[in-house]
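Dig into what follows:

_____
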Amino acid sequence: MTWLERYFYAPTLCQKALAYALRPLSLVYETIATLKRQSAPFEDFKIPIVSVGNLVAGGSGKTPFILALAQVLAPLYQVVVVSRGYGRTSRGLVVVRAWGEILVKQEMAGDEAFLLASKLPTCGVVVSEERKMGVLKAKQMGAQVVLLDDGFRFNFKKLNILLKPQLKPYFDFCLPSGVYRESPKCYALADLVLQEGLDYTRHTKVLNPTERMLLVTAIASPSRLEPFLPPVVGRLYFKDHATFDMKALECAYKKHAATSLLVTAKDAVKLTNCPLPLSLLDLRLEIAPKILQQVLEYLAH
């Protein structure tokens, strides 16, 4: 675990003391987040919206969940994914994919949005800091269903899905004392609260494996990859959404006498021009049939 992961999930005595010292700031953060969500005006866009979110900061599987859900819905509906587009160089509203054609490069889309655009050839993908504008654009594009990434806090008419990862935070505190972005009491406000390992599961395989693979990743909470990792000669972690430093990769590759870099799909979209051999840790998510049925029933009404 990194220092930050230990702080949130398995704190030392000193880290526990720090968490309690920062508790007043957490209460302020929690109050502001609650008031901001509760004071937002309710909006009905007259289009079915399925929001996939979480209450904890960092990765919880939203992107693979949206990908798996979109793959089920795409044969039945015209689906557009609306996301903020974290880590992108662009600003404002950008259409990443419009019904079969990717319109922008990865840098302008953000790694997660570009990954979705690459994996969903019959769907649309839109990124926008203002999710309202993203939903309206999706509707203008002819969407029949909008999948809203990280949309829990928005007061739209929608089906609210919250994902609970297997690893439970040590404290039920908001940032900076804990890892929650809103009070865990907000789970009660969701339409569906889905537990990893019960309502959705991950399946992994390594594509293009080699003898000496060096793990390279720029995802939040990289230790969550541990249960799925094959033997690796080393680990090189970058900040979430970071752009990879090729010189650093080449140096680490030589230092570990690696035969390939092991990366996730999210990382791979930023390494299309990498001169080093790549192995892919292919993480696929399977949604329980009963959950898919509940989503389909919502869309049918």
